[in-house]
Design goal:
The protein has three helices and no strands. It is mainly alpha-helical and 69 residues long.
Length: 69
């Protein structure tokens, strides 16, 4: 079973990975990965969004580590 902390960490880590791909200077698949990462990040939740979600649904989400509930 995934805990709220694990779920939140997965979302944050995925966002950071997508940011890294989107900002990469060189892409090996002719921009496909970077374009997709940019598209996914357009609507990806920010830490403030996760904080609000964790306040409303504490059994589903945990607040990001650096955001106070």
């Amino acid at each position: 079973m995934t805990t709220p902390v694990e779920r939140t960490k997965a979302v944050i880590d995925t966002r950071e990975f997508l940011n890294t791909l989107a900002e990469a200077g060189e892409i090996s698949v002719k921009g496909l990965v970077q374009t997709r990462a940019e598209h996914l990040l357009r609507h990806y939740p920010l830490d403030v969004d996760l904080g609000v979600s964790s306040a409303a649904l504490p059994d589903v989400w945990a607040p990001p580590p650096h955001v106070k509930p």
